[in-house]
Amino acid sequence: MSAVRSPEFLNALRGLLPPESVLTAPEDTRPFESDGLAAYRNTPDLVVLPHTEAQVTAILRLCHAHRVAVVTRGAGTGLAAGALPVDGAVLLVMARLNQIQHIDPLARTAVVQPGVRNLAISEAAAIYGLYYAPDPSSQIACSIGGNVAENSGGVHCLKYGLTVHNILKLRAWTIDGELLEIGNESLDASGYDLLALMTGSEGMLAVITEVTVKLLPRPERAQVVLAAFDDIAKAGAAVGNIIAAGVIPAGLEMMDKLAIQAAEAFVHAGYPLDCAALLLCEVDGVNEEVSDDIFTVHEVLTASGAIEIRTADSEEQRARFWAGRKAAFPAVGRLAPDYYCMDGTIPRSQLPHVLERISAMSVEYGLAVANVFHAGDGNLHPLILFDSSQPNELHQAEVFGGKILELCVEVGGTITGEHGVGLEKINQMCVQFGTPELTRFHDVKAAFDPHTLLNPGKAVPELHRCAEWGAMHIQGGQLPHPELPRF
Amino acid sequence: MLDDYIEHIRAAHADGSPLVIQGGGSKTFYGNAQAGTILDTRKLSGVVDYQPRELVMTAQAGTPLAEIEGLLAEQNQMLAFEPPHFQGGSTLGGCIAAGLSGPRRPYAGAARDFVLGTRIIDGTGQPLRFGGQVIKNVAGYDVSRLMVGALGTLGLITEISLKVLPRPAAELTLQFELDEATAIDQMNRWAGQALPLSASCWHAGLLSLRLSGARSAVRAAQTKLGGELAHDPAAFWQRLRDQSTPFFDRHPQHPDHRKWRLAVKPTAPPLNLGEAQWIEWGGAVRWLMTDQPTAALREAARSSGGHATLFHGEPPADGVFTPLAPPLLHVQRQLKQRFDPKGILNRGRLYPVF
């Protein structure tokens, strides 16, 4: 019997927590068997749901004393199996630490517990004319603790940054129950930038119990322009042209023909169908600046060969333009029994080249691809369509997906722009990093967690693993949390 | 060329002989005193790649900051964190290793916010590459950003990729006569509104506010805010950035005054630690020329939500930076130990204990 299920450990744990906070029966623990990447499942041995920071630290100290591993989980919306239960580990669910503790409208900060939903922060700050900028597509459900763990972005990263740019301070606990107060209420801190190291660390370094986030004033105005192109390379070039014209769009999104058709059939956004690519360009800010930028964007899109340009002239129309893009994942999910979603990022200038290569590979592997991009920041989500009931198609899709990620690394990009490594992309880390860098990553972990008790086996591959391969597999077109927008 | 640096560090690692990493030497005053052989980074010079349409520049660490800013200006772009040059000769590597940012920082972000990737040579002589040239990248720990402000104690930075931004089409500076408490309150109120702010400071009863953006937006904000147009604003902000106004000089009549930087919560009320004060970053930084004891200044910063750093003057025994709580010190020492096991890189520069 593993230590985690031993009577001694369980009794000690039950001494720390109310009975309803400790789950051991399979019917109680099975709902936690996967995060948002449901293809990876493992029923946890033990689930704990603390309500307070003191309970969290007591759990950590107990686990440390018994050398029991801890997998921290937020809302469970992650897409890389980062919160997948590990055998013999406690699954530490932070969802009940869900209080917004303080909003300071003058200093433009909010102090929140890790289980607070991303969108709830902006909703609570709205009466002050403020909001929290990072807006991952799952923002109605995902929690801020998970956002910090994943360095979550959203469609507005190019202008407003990722989580790392929008937090000031963390209360975090090492596995041996020591408090790390990282950052402060000023704009910097003495010593090494542990705030940066913690952000995106996927629960490998410490457990966060409080986050102080920055709030921004709501832009006075936001407006979106939709442009259609008869050639995807022209659309790709238009992206660079907009930025070269000195405009930093709040959002700049692109879809190819297959994605457009799927989205239109699904949500009837009114997209033109006789085109090879669509661009959605949103600008926001002070009223006068938005007017100027919209004018510039129009000029650039025309000069870049757009065959049709529409500007949303009402909030309803703006929402409709976005609806198709935000529904692109589930829409594509209707086209085939299965798809693989990739998450590479490339330099924007490589977009036409990468699209051409993906298109050629699509023919080579005999599998269709729908392309959805956060074009402003070069983050690609190629969705490879396949049917796992057909012999060899799953394997072909995996090989194809692997080639796409290798291509991203080859042109100077990365294997994951926003979904994280988790367990899902752990083998692909070997493509992006050499042994010296992977060794230093293990060193960083050891500086915080020398016994490898926090989320063991995730995010950074053991060196001997580096011959394997993996990619995201969506079974039967079913996304986990189908109610959430994905984009 | 890179191989020479690798060899140099490997040899120093083998001997355990300390190295002092230095670029233009413009920030030798910053951090704690250190001893060792100078390792000059300036042979690692030149822009590796600059794609204005990508908003990304990659350059070797020894490249002069002025050269980089000149190239960016030709494309109507800039380093949005407005790094200080101090007395000149600054290199990009020194700028990133020190992690200091200028007047635009509270509104555009800090040096660390614009770093996309770094190449370093660690304290064993191992070349390493972290991050890359793309804005979104969550593969592996963010070791690139860890290098920013580490003062070269974790590795010699050899190459840096940065996000750059377009220069604003228009810029002007408004000035308002306000007392300190009102000015602090006002800077915070403005920061909570949709205004094209790009810098703010207060000194000797005068609040200065820079607006940057589209011509129309800047004009509209000027109409809304009022105030007086500042004379020669570019020079004003550059002098503040580089601390080349007389305020920041040592004064013969106050030989005991030391220059302190107190980073605080931007809304922190007046600290009442003496008259010689310059506030910037929307209230988040308070510069003091003072003979107040170290403990009093550190306590004032701590109780105002931040930390205190000595910029010039006789250093305290525990170093110029605010000492860390034991658990944080433990983790930081562990990191140092793993990137530089023999402690040869800028030994003691960040904290006297490593």
Q: Largest chain-chain contact?
A: A-B, 95 and 91 residues
User: Quaternary status of these chains?
Assistant: heterodimer
Question: Count of DSSP helices of chain A?
Answer: 16
Helix content of chain A: 25-40%
What is the end-to-end distance of chain A? 43 Å
Explain the overall architecture:
The complex is a heterodimer of chains A (487) and B (354). Chain A is of the alpha+beta class. Helix content of chain A is 33%, strand content 19%. Chain A has 16 helices and 18 strands. In chain A, the strands form four sheets. Chain A has a seven-stranded antiparallel β-sheet with strand order 15-12-14-13-17-18-16, with helices on both faces. The longest helix of chain A is centred in the last third of the chain and has 18 residues, at 393-410. The model of chain A is unreliable at 468-487 (pLDDT under 50). By secondary structure, chain B is of the alpha+beta class. Helices cover 28% and strands 25% of the residues of chain B. Chain B contains eleven helices and 17 strands. Chain B has helices at residues 2-15, 65-74, 92-98, 105-108, 111-114, 143-146, 180-191, 215-225, 233-242, 294-303, 326-339; strands at 19-22, 37-40, 47-51, 56-60, 77-78, 115-121, 127-131, 156-163, 165-166, 170-177, 197-203, 206-213, 228-229, 258-263, 277-280, 285-290, 307-312. An eight-stranded antiparallel β-sheet of chain B has the order 13-10-12-11-15-16-14-17. In chain B, strands 3-4-8-6-7 form a five-stranded antiparallel β-sheet. Chain B starts with a helix and ends in a 15-residue tail after the last helix. The model of chain B has no long low-confidence stretch (mean pLDDT 96). The interface between A and B is large, with 95 and 91 residues.
